[in-house]
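Sanity check

After download, print the first record. It should look like this:
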Amino acid sequence: MNKVILLYASKHGSSKEYADMIGDELDIKAVDIAKFNSIKNEDYDTIIFVSGVYASKINKIDTIKNSFNKFDNIIVCPVGFSEFNEEIKNNIENNFNQEELKKVNIFYLRGALDISKLSFLEKMMMNMMKKMLKKNPEENKEMLAAFDKPVSFINKDNIKDLIYYVKEI
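Expected structure tokens:
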């Protein structure tokens, strides 16, 4: 296995939880993205970045994009509440230009939602979303349930493919 740096940006805890799981499996320490600029990038071949997806944007992705050319392997693990599908895939890929997409390996990780952890603005946005979701309650049952009590899909099984991939490079 190459020299790997594992970074995360976590607003509500899911990304940090996944980063810690990944770190345990790979025997490396997860580092908050806030410390990225103080790290010697040349000491690493591979970067793994775990971060939440909010309104289709990967949180803090721009912090590491300027350093892509310094790494042989770039792995991005967007964490989102929704089940992975073609729309989610396209939204995540839209965070990158075509050249960046050629270099990045993406492993989507399904996270959690606890409305009580959201900021006031995020709660307002979620309430607008809730109104839209109620138009198709059967189709949006899972998401609507999260408004009543916290829901988590965080699971060690979700990182299996990522861990296998990293150990093979």
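If your output differs, re-run the checksum step. Summary of this record's structure: Helices lie at 14-26, 61-65, 86-93, 98-103, 120-133, 141-145, 160-168.
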